[in-house]
Structures are given as structure tokens and as C-alpha cells.
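Q: Can I see a sequence and its folded structure?
A: Here is a first one.
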Amino acid sequence: MTRKGLSFGNSEQTGSKPKQRKFSKGKVLFWSAAIAATVAIGSFVYSGMPRTVTTTVKGLTEKTADGGDQKYLVQTTSGVFENTDWLFFKTTSSDYQNELVGKEGYKVELSVWGWRWGWKGWYENIHDIKVIGPDEAYMSKSKLEGVLDNLNFMELKTPVNVTPDLVQKIADYDKQHLDVGIVPIIKDGQFTRVGTYDAQPDAYAQRHLKTIVEFLEK
């Protein structure tokens, strides 16, 4: 005698098959959207509002962040910025920090993202760096003289305001001429003279300097 609702024997005897878990198209789309939204929100929270800062480097330090990780800090006349990697959004912090070694007193252009949140120890994070040149108004006289001793340089008849556009054009010129080493000298936010570390004969260096000076004085 058997009771209703009960069955005896294994699945092979009864002909039944084990149930298979199925993922509906709707669930796949839902989880795909959820993951994409998480990445998007995370990147927005991390990055904040991007901006470009033209400032002067005061020093470089390191700080132990939450969890024991070390983060690079760049102290400038416009505040403190961090220089750290974050997932696949940025993986170049060591390269940037190395580029800034020995550049205390140099004017730089920083592309930064994020927010300053003191309670959490957050700073705006550096995503790109352009080293412009020595800041004559900030650098000590002895250090500036040491820099100038290694340069061929020319004075500008009239100082020219430092702008991101001019910084980029000088960098482009430098690359087009096989990195001759153009070094603008800045004072009070203006280009006052232009130098080069070029090891070629003076006539060669002077030709490039004259071209840049004429361009700046237009």
C-alpha cells in the first residue's frame, strides 16, 4: 500500500531528472546593470570633479593610509595632493613620483580628480603631470643659480603669462625637435626667460631658444 504524494525509488527508476538551475535573461541583464552601475558610481566617487592646477612643488612625502598601505603625497603652494594607484583607473603613481624627485621649487601643471576629506585622509589624486620649469619667485637663490649654471638661456623682452596652452605648445616643440630640453623660467606666474639643457654646440641651442622666445613674445 502506498500513500498519495509519496514516491519510492530513485530518479532512474521513475524516469525523473534532477532539476537544473536556470538563469533567466532578465536576471542576467539585472546583474550586468548592477555591476556596471557599481563601477560607474565607484569611479565617480573616486574621481570627483576634474580640474587643472598650475602650482609650485614644495616637497614630497609618504603617508600610511587606512589598511596600512603607503600613499605618495605632493606638497605644493596650492595645497597637498595624493599620487596613488586605484584599480585600473590609474597605475602610474610611481612614475609620476619619480618625475617629481628633485623638482622642489619647480612650477608644474597637475591634472587632479577627487575631493579633500580630512576625516578620511583623502586628497585630490594626481592623474597627469607636466613639469614646466623653475619658479624663480619660490626657489632659493642658490638653487636657482645652480639650475641656471647648467643652462643656455635667453631673456624675454616682455614677461608672458603662464597658461596651459603655452605649456603644451612648448612641450610639443620639444618633442618635435628630439627632446632638446626646453626649460622655461617662471617668476610671479610669468615666463621670464627660456633655457635648454641641450649638450649640442651653443649655436644649435641658441637657435631653438630664439624660436621659442619669438613664439612667446608674439
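Q: Show me another, different protein.
A: A second, unrelated one:
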Amino acid sequence: MKEHEGHDEMHAEMLLILFVILILSQVLLLVWRKQSPRTHHNATLLGLWFFPAGFSLYWEYSRFLVFWFGFSILNSYIIYIASRKPLAQGTPRYPFSSSPSSWHLSDKTGPLPSLRTVYKWFYLLFYLCYGVGLLSFFIIILDVAGVVSLFVDALEVFQVSIMTFYYALYFGVLGRDFADMCSDQMASTLGVRTSFLPCGCPRKLPSFFFFC
């Protein structure tokens, strides 16, 4: 018994230190976000992008790595065309079509084709993640209610539904953050300041309201 003396006090001190660290970290994050929102957004975005991939690589979650690499390749291309100065005039509206004849190159001058390409990608990503997440959540509810077990193995369906729901949530949030970053970058390239309205749109240029 003597060798265990003082363990309760030590555990209490460890718990107290943990709570203090959690509170201070949240305060520091809030201060960082208030003082430099752009660096805070970029840092958290990079963390959200690379940390799950690092853990999956360590634990050998090959399925997630396949989806992550596919998303990263397509998204890197979108970031590339959104960060060009000047924005490309002849970017295809449907950059990932298998048939080049289906690409439509605009004859108009200006950066609108690049904008359409970027927004079409994030528009498609949003609805894909939204649909997959909603369907997965609906299947989870049916599984909890016992409906799925009447037809197939409920445990296997539940595991797949949880996995697809997580994927939809993760890539949906990641795509939303990248959409904000790309829209700010394109607005800056076009010479539009994005700090006037909460949505980032200028007050006196109504033709640029598609940046919201």
C-alpha cells in the first residue's frame, strides 16, 4: 500500500494540468483567429488536410488514403488554376470530362471560364458529400431501428454507413474551406477586395457578387 501512496494526488494534479492546457489552448486559438484570421484559416486547413492522411498512413488505412489521394490530385489542379495570375481565359468548363469534344472553350475574354471551372468543382463536391452523408445517416437510422437487420447483416451495414458518413463529412468540410480560399484568391487576382461585407463581396461592385 505504501508504494501507491500519493497516486491520487498525482492523478488529480495531472487532470488539473490537462484542463488548464485545454482552456489555454482554446484561448490562444481564439486570439490567433481574431488577430490573424488568414493565417489561422490556412494553418487549420493544412492540419485538416494532412493530419488524417498521416494517421492513416501510420495505421495503414489504405481505403482512406486512396480517396484522399484522389481528392488531393483533383483539388490541387483546381487550386492551381485558381491561383494563376492572370486567370486563364480558355480553361474548360468541364475539366474532368473523358471526352475532349464535350469541353466548351469560351470565346469571350476574361477569367470567367476559370471561375466556372473552380465553382463547378466545389458545387459538385458539395452535393456529392451532402447526398452521400444524408443517405448514410438515413441508413444508420434504419439500422438502429432494426429495419436493416430484416434483410442483410446489420453490423456490416452499420460499419459501412458510419465510414461513408465520416468520409462525406470530412471531404465536405475540407472542400468548403478550400472553396473559401480559392474564391478569395481569385477575387484578389481580379483586384476585388474581400473585406467589406461579411460574405466577402464588395459593396459598390454588384457585378462581382458571384464571389459570395
